[in-house]
Request: fold
Amino acid sequence: MLFYYVLFLLSAHGHNGPVRASYPNYYFPGAENFWQAALQSGLTPSPDPNGGDWAVGLFNFPTLSDATTRTRSHARINHYQQVKDSRPNYHILAEHTVSKILFKGKRAIGLEYLPSTGGERLDVYAKKEVLLAAGALHTPQILRLSGIGSKQFLKTFGIDSVADLPGVGENFMDQGELKVPFTFENNIFPNSGALDTNKTYDAEQRALYDAQKQGAYTIVRTLSTNLAVPPLANTTSSWRDILATAKSHDPTDITLYFLRALSRGSVKINSTDPLQQPVIDFRTASDPTDFDLAVALFEKEKEIMSAPAMKILGPKMASPYDTASKEEMKTLLAANMSPSNAHSCCTAAMVPKEEGGVVDTEMQVYGVKGLRVVDVSVSIPITGILVD
Reply:
C-alpha cells in the first residue's frame, strides 16, 4: 500500500499524445520517512507540480515511461517508428550539424548542414517554414551564425545582419545544484542501493519486472520517487527581505536544486565555425540575492533532515556543512555549487522585441519570415519548475 496518494490534475496534462508519462508503481520504504519529514517541516502536498500555480510543495513527479509496458517512452519509438513508413519525406539525419539558416531577403528558405565530424556542406530547402529546435545552447548559435542577433556583435565576426535582435543568446538560465554529503547510521531495506549490493533482491525485482512490470525496476535509476520544492515563504522567516532585495554509514548526497534563480547568463559564439561549441557564461549567483535564496533552502534542508521521521535513519551532515554559519555557507556555495542541472532555457525568449525578445507568441522570429523556434529557448523563467 502506498503511504500517500499520487495526486494529479487532469487539466494539467494532455491525453492523446504519442509520448507517455506515468508514475512508478513501487516506492522504496525509506521514501516514506523523507515524505513524513517534509510534512513535519511544514511542507504541504501539491495537487500537481505541472498544474501552473502548484509547482511548489511536496509531490511525486512522473517520468517518461509507459504505464503498461513500464519501458521508456520517447519520440523515436512512440512517434517516428509509427509514422515513418507512411511519410516517405520524413527523415532524421543523425550525426550532422546545421551550419546556418538560408535566407532569401528576410524569408527563411532552408538550411545548410554538414557532417558533425566535418566535410562537405549541403543545402536543404523548405516549402513552407523552417522550424528550429536545437536547444537553449545551440539555437542561439545557429541564429547568430545565420545573421540573427546583435548587429554590432555579429559585425565582429564578419557576419552580415539579417535581423538585429540583441536578445539572441541572452537571458540564459539554468538551475544550479548543490550536493550536500550525509552519512546515515541506519538504512531501511530494501533501498535503491540494494539493487547493486544484494544479488537476491536484485534477481527478485528483475524477475518481477520481467513477468509483471512491477517492482523496483519500474523506477528510473538515480531518481527518487518524490520531490520537495518548498515555497520561499515556507522556507525562511526572512523571505520578505530576500524578495525585497531581489546505507549504514554509507555516504549519500542530498541534492538541493535552485529552481528559480534570479541570475542570468549568456550563450555566445566565438567563431564562425559551426562545429565549435558556443561559449557559455552561467553567471551563477551574479545576482547576490541567489545566495540568500540558496542559504534559506539549505537551512530548510537541515530542518527536514532533523525532523522526527528521519530519526530512525540517523542522518549526519558532513563537515564543513554541519557547522557552517549562514555567511560561511555562502562561501561554500560559491566553491561547490554546480551551475547546471542540464535544465538550460530562455536564450530566444518569447517576450516583446523591445524588451529583448526573439520570438513572438506564435514562436515566429522577429524581423524575418518563415522561421520559428520551437524549443525550450523560447521559455521565460515564470516559475520555479523543472525545465525539461
